[in-house]
Amino acid sequence: MNQVEETLRQEVAKLLEDGTIDVFVGHEAASLPLRTSPCFVRCPKEVNRLVWDRTCTSNLAAYLPQLFKRPVRLKGEWILPKVGVIAKGCDSRSIVGLIKEKQIPRDRLFIIGVGCEGMIDRHSVGRVLGVVGLADAKIDGNSVQVIGTDGREKRIDIADVLAASCRECEHRSAVISDLSLGDAPAPTQEVSRYANVAEFESKSPQERWEYLVAELSRCIRCYACRQACPNCYCEECFAEETAPQWLGVTTDLPDVFVFHLGRVFHQAGRCVDCGACVAACPQGIDLRLLNQKINKDVEELFEAQASLSLEEAEALSSFRMEDDQSFMTEP
Amino acid sequence: MTKETNEKMSGNGWEPRIVAFLCNWCSYAGADLAGVSRIQYPPNVRVIRVPCSGRINPLFIVKALQAGADGVLVSGCHPGDCHYISGNLYARRKFALLKSLLEYVGIEPQRVHFSWVSAAEGARFAEILGKVIDSVRSVGPANRMIKRFKEVA
User: Fold this and answer.
1) What confidence score (pLDDT) does residue B1 get?
2) What residues of chain B lie within 8 A of the CB of A261, using their CB?
3) Of A34, A295, B81, B129, which residue has the fewest beta carbons closer than 10 angstroms?
4) Taking CB atoms and an 8 Å limit, are B80 and A321 in contact across chains?
């Protein structure tokens, strides 16, 4: 158990005991190696379920809006629960976004900020192992000891299997918190964000189309990317709307394209590049290639990054008179 | 699939089909003025009137392309002239992103056009439309995103 994990458990127990929060949303070990699942801790006795390590990929902000959907009855009064949550940099930005979009109330939240040095990408670990499955894994400092289903052991440097969005992360510590369990060290070297987008843009339209056809034809329309995303809280998603029906429920390429274009467009000015969709995708589709394109455009055209502060309006809910309109058709 | 689409796909006598989303207050009136002033413009366009360019959900455009349009034109009031003050300015941000995104995924940029046409600019509307049609014609019939259904006898 690491230092942060220990402090986290103590703090959460304290918060639950003194009634500051009714429920705490954190990560717990899942049944598969190198995976965690979200857990909801409601009593101090359960705090030992909480973990904090390099496998806490999911963005916990995604689980917050549902907790505020209906008030709870407490001492004869209907009130909203008080929710605690552990937030790394990206989670905290998503929380800021959700507060601004009025999906969660700031005054019922207790945010425990934690510095994050990047999460392990399970798809990358899978690639290292090749056809062999992952039987067990143990994290040890900056490396991870993996045991394949063939019984062979392998030592992998975590830096080699870091999620792409973590590798390019600029906000490793929470941008909003009520309690901080320490900040992560700043990135040691300058990384170029949007390198994948720039490379893809340099290809010909035909190559781009073919690559995306190859990627997206693997999509099984399970909507795991949507479910994992804190921004996707709509009661009725455009993908399931029937009047109008935006797209069919098939895995035909045109339907898959409309789904992914719609999904990524709804992220415009809101995506914090947490990588939760990439981690959730069972098919390992390169979803980040689309997300980052939108992020890059928002940053270049509107000089905005999603959800960094509670005050600033998001890119698509604001405008400037002098916004770029060089793309418009003139006679 | 309609007979018309079949003909289009076989490449014989293909004419671009363009869906135009025009705002009620400026561009629709501009298109109307073009007609009233007897300015000729090609008949390839199917006009859909919307209350404001800000009303246009980017999915409208994607959906039009999926449903078989060869090109899409979106037109609204000039910046500063919006009937709802700022609808077109919000829309401009969405369109900038959508145009770039569609090009990025490999949809030819010649298919999607955005423009400003005021209610007094009938001639400008006809000119823009001519330009849009030429540009769509230059890339030929759309085939990348169209949802096709199996022919039944």
Assistant:
1) 45
2) 62, 101-102, 105
3) B81
4) yes
Contact: A205, B106; criterion CB under 8 Å: yes
Q: Answer yes or no: is the ipTM higher than 0.90.
A: yes
Distances in whole angstroms, Cα of residue A6 to Cα of each of A1, A320, A331: 7, 48, 66
Output the six-digit token pair for A173. 């510590």
Residue B148 lies in a domain: no
CATH code of the domain containing B53: 3.40.50
Q: What is the reported pTM?
A: 0.92
Kindly list the residues from chain B whose CB atom is less than 8 angstroms away from the CB atom of residue A320: 89
* pLDDT tens-digit readout, B107-143: 999 999 999 999 999 999 999 999 999 999 999 999 8
**Which residue stretches of A202-287 are H helix?**
205-216, 224-228, 253-265, 276-280
What are the structure tokens assigned to A65, written together?
A: 């809006």
**Residue boundaries of the structural domains of chain A:** 3-121+162-317, 122-161
Kindly report, residue by residue over B37-90, the tens digit of the pLDDT.
999 999 999 999 999 999 999 999 999 999 999 999 999 999 999 999 999 999
Of B103, B114, B147, the CB nearest to A329: B114
Q: Of the candidates B59, B90, B106, which has its C-beta nearest A246's C-beta?
A: B59
